[in-house]
Every structure is written in structure tokens, then in C-alpha cells.
């Protein structure tokens, strides 16, 4: 079941501050994210969110902590076993063997980079009344 989260008075004030600055804040909780997402408590907000945090504090909104919610990293699949094949005699000499490992390394690096990009971390401010307020995602 998906229940609507009712924002507290402090959360409504924070959402109003965000609206005035053209930012979209929303009240969330741990169940707001997909099942395979992870939440981590942070001692301070990431640098990327400092403008929004400072604006909220100047407006009188008290924040007791921060949480980052993100998708759990996808695990790499195990390589499939290949049946043993009798080595075939080579008909053409191989001119360069250095390209093959470099190509594999580059493909691996790009794969890891794109997996990291596909994660959509959200920065959440925990207000003094305990309300979780999503103040930004990394792609805003």
C-alpha cells in the first residue's frame, strides 16, 4: 500500500522556501524509495546541497541531520564457464597483443562509470520534528 505522507508544519515551511527558490522539495520516508535502495546517515550535508541547506537555515528551518538514499550498486555477474575447445592453429600472425587488454580495461571502466551514473542519489534533510525532506537529487 502506498500512503500519502502528510507534511508537518515545519516541512510545509521548508517546501515553501524551496518553491520560492525554484527548488522542488518533497516529504519522504524510508518506504518512499524502491525496495533495493539504501539509506545512509551522514554527519553533514554533501557540498552540492550547501546552497539549499544554508537557504533553509536562514529561513529559520532547523535541521538535525542528513540522509542519502541511493540504489544499491549492481553486482557484477560471474563469468560463464566456457566449454574447453581444442586450440586451432593460427592462420595469420597476430600483429599486436597490447590492444586486447587495453580494450577490455576500457570497457570495464566505462561499464563501472555508467553503472555509477545510473544511480540516482537523493539528499534528504532530517528536520527537527523528524520529518525527512528530500531537498535534491544529484541530477537536478
Characterization of the model:
This protein has about 140 residues and is an alpha+beta fold. The protein has one domain. The chain has 3 helices and 5 strands, in the order αββαβαββ. A 5-stranded antiparallel sheet has the order 1-5-4-3-2, with helices on one face. Strand 4 and strand 5 form a beta hairpin. The longest helix has 20 residues, at about 100-120.
Describe the secondary-structure layout.
Layout: H1 9-20, E1 26-28, E2 37-42, H2 50-58, E3 63-71, H3 99-118, E4 122-127, E5 132-137
Antiparallel strand pairs: 1-5, 2-3, 3-4, 4-5
Strand content: 15-25%
What summary fits the major beta sheet?
5 strands, antiparallel
> What is the total domain count?
1
Structural class: alpha+beta
Provide the descriptors you would attach to this structure in a database record.
alpha+beta; 140 residues; elongated
Task: Give me a quick take on this structure.
29% of the residues lie in helices and 21% in strands.
Amino acid at each position: 500500500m502506498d500512503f500519502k505522507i502528510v507534511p508537518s508544519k515545519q516541512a510545509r515551511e521548508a517546501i515553501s522556501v524551496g518553491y520560492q527558490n525554484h527548488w522542488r522539495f518533497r516529504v519522504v520516508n524510508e518506504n518512499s524509495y524502491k525496495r533495493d535502495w539504501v539509506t545512509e546517515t551522514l554527519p553533514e550535508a554533501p557540498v552540492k546541497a550547501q546552497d539549499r541547506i544554508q537557504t533553509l537555515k536562514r529561513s529559520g528551518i532547523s535541521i538535525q541531520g542528513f540522509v542519502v538514499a541511493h540504489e544499491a550498486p549492481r553486482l557484477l555477474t560471474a563469468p560463464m564457464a566456457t566449454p574447453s575447445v581444442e586450440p586451432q592453429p593460427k592462420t595469420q600472425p597476430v600483429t599486436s597483443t597490447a590492444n586486447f587488454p587495453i580494450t577490455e580495461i576500457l570497457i570495464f571502466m566505462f561499464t563501472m562509470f555508467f553503472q555509477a551514473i545510473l544511480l540516482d542519489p537523493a539528499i534528504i534533510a532530517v528536520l527537527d520534528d523528524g520529518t525527512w525532506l528530500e531537498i535534491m537529487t544529484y541530477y537536478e
